[in-house]
Design goal:
It contains 13 helices and six strands. With 335 residues, it is mostly helical. The protein is globular and about 55 Å long. The two termini are 23 Å apart. 49% of the residues are buried.
Length: 335
């Protein structure tokens, strides 16, 4: 029995608790710091338009980095894998931090997020044969490190970022996805990556306490890009690329329909027409403007206006369904 087989249960249990506690303890002090520095945003989905501290997702990144460093130290059998995961998160989060103060154009931002895949490539923490259900492993010896891995990190990171539109929408749905991917990785017999998914879920739950409706703090790009990169890195490390896409399907669909409706890469600040409008009673309604981008939020409220928390619950339901599909896919792969 390898070291990871008998160590992963106690180690993961301790780190899950540690990740949740660390994020829970530092989120609001960090939010207060951001408010004092003027790093805030307007919550546009509430009639009173409260001013909320931004970049609170830094707490999630801190929790993930602290716990992943401990993984490096506690389970040296997978030293390079966990080290690569740590650096991927740091680089993606750094892109979010810099963009918050010195905004880049969409193309440059995407290119810089792709840079986060470099630690995985340099440290060899990948497999060039991604597994596809019903088809089997694909041979991508050259394409995987130089094309697929950077594109995959960019795709997942930006899809997660684009789903951070309502109170708790990104953190809640990502936590659900992390739990289902944890279960899927156990079914596939991959405890080394299961620990990573458990940590992602724990850190997100610690932050969700303050980010859920009505939000006391916003994640910002630092959190959403970092979380998305964490999912991408874990998928590459654990050979779970296809299953990860399924688990994150609502976010992936949201990103796809937004880009297809706009017709180009863009930053949120470049879009003047909003996809939804806020009614006087606080409900969110679909925008009727032809130039407004199509989003998953807009589709959910197309037939009837809903409160913000009700829309997020719809997202949760969609993510639970996609999570079930992801676990079922993993089960099929081991049959």
């Amino acid at each position: 029995m390898s070291k990871i087989d008998w160590l992963w249960i106690p180690v993961s249990t301790v780190l899950i608790v540690l990740g949740y506690v660390v994020v829970s303890l530092i989120t609001m002090p960090l939010a207060g710091f951001m408010r004092r520095r003027g790093v805030t945003g307007v919550d546009v989905h509430k009639p009173e338009r409260p001013v909320i501290p931004e970049m609170g997702g830094s707490a999630v990144i801190v929790g993930l980095v602290v716990c992943s460093i401990l993984l490096v130290l506690l389970i040296p059998e997978h030293f390079w894998v966990y080290l690569a995961f740590t650096f991927v998160i740091i680089i993606a989060a750094a892109v979010g931090v810099i963009d918050a103060f010195r905004p880049w154009n969409a193309l440059l931002k995407i290119a810089l997020v792709a840079v986060a895949s470099i630690p995985i490539i340099l440290l060899g923490a990948y497999y060039s044969f991604p597994e596809i259900p019903f088809i089997g492993p694909l041979r991508m010896t050259i394409l995987y490190p130089f094309v697929f891995a950077p594109l995959f990190v960019t795709l997942v990171s930006n899809a997660t970022n684009m789903f951070d539109v309502l109170n708790g929408s990104m953190t809640g749905t990502s936590a659900i996805a992390a739990v289902t991917l944890f279960l899927a990785s156990l079914l596939l017999g991959r405890p080394a990556v299961a620990i990573i998914y458990a940590l992602i879920a724990a850190c997100l739950c610690g932050f969700y306490r303050y980010n859920r409706y009505p939000a006391k703090v916003f994640s910002g790009d630092v959190g959403s890009l970092g979380v998305g990169a964490a999912f991408a890195a874990a998928a590459i490390i654990g050979r779970m690329e296809f299953i990860t896409i399924i688990a994150l399907l609502p976010a992936m669909i949201n990103g796809s329909i937004i880009l297809s409706s706009v017709g180009r890469l863009f930053e949120r600040r470049e879009i003047s027409a909003r996809p939804t409008t806020l009614l006087e009673d606080g409900r969110i309604a679909a925008s009727r403007g032809g130039k407004a981008p199509i989003t998953l939020t807009r589709l959910v409220v197309m037939s009837s206006p809903l409160r913000e928390d009700a829309v997020v619950r719809h997202f949760f339901a969609l993510n639970i369904f996609s999570g079930i599909l992801a676990v079922a896919t993993a089960l099929f792969m081991v049959m």
